[in-house]
Amino acid sequence: MSTCAKRLPPILVLIALLVLLAPMACRFAWDYSTASRRHQQFQSMFVWPRGWRVRQQRTLRSTAQLSTAEPSSPSPECRLSMVHLITHANDIYTQGDRTIIFWTKTLQCGDNIQAEKKVEAIRVTRSGMYFIYNQIMFKDERFTMGQVVWRRFGARRHAAQQEKPLLQCVCSMPEKRPNQSCYTAGIVRLGAGDEVAVIIPSRGHAHISANPAQTFFGVMQLT
């Protein structure tokens, strides 16, 4: 005779599980409600200004926009002055036995070097070291040509010391197709009110090129 153990009905098993889990569920609900009340009490200890959260959100958005925006390029500044001049064919004159060139301003930066729209000389308004450069393309048939960069002292100087040569250039002209450029440059100390001019001495009615890439004159401030 075989004996079989009687099995419990499924409904009884489910009831037993509910009885065992009910205390745990009640404990969890109690802990959650207690923590929620404590959190509310903690927030009530602080009194936030009216509209603080709105202003905080606006501040965060503004900060994000500033961080993603491209940096603005600084405005250009000229710490040291400079001027660059060119000439035209109708701005070349003869004065006695020398040729005078009137220059037209094409580039300028800063206020320490002054040059009008059409000038014979460049004037500096601040004492310091300056870099002077000049080139002339000669188209003259005379065997030698050249130019001299002169310094004209300010009004504070004595009349006997009004001018002084600073730089000079001499070149030999070819017999056939007389085209020769003469370039000179150097660093000099100039005083406030001094002027710098270019003269072609002992050569009246000199034939030169008015091409801006061949004949030019400029001064750059170094200190």
From TrEMBL:
Its main location: secreted. PROSITE patterns: THD_2. Keywords: Cytokine, Disulfide bond, Glycoprotein, Secreted, Signal. One of its GO terms (biological process) is immune response. InterPro entries: TNF_dom, TNF_Ligand_Superfamily, Tumour_necrosis_fac-like_dom. It is found in: Secreted. One of its GO terms (cellular component) is extracellular space. Gene3D superfamilies: 2.60.120.40. The keyword Kinase does not apply. Residues 1-26 form the signal peptide. PANTHER family: A PROLIFERATION-INDUCING LIGAND-LIKE PROTEIN-RELATED, PROTEIN EIGER. This is THD domain-containing protein. It comes from Eptatretus burgeri.
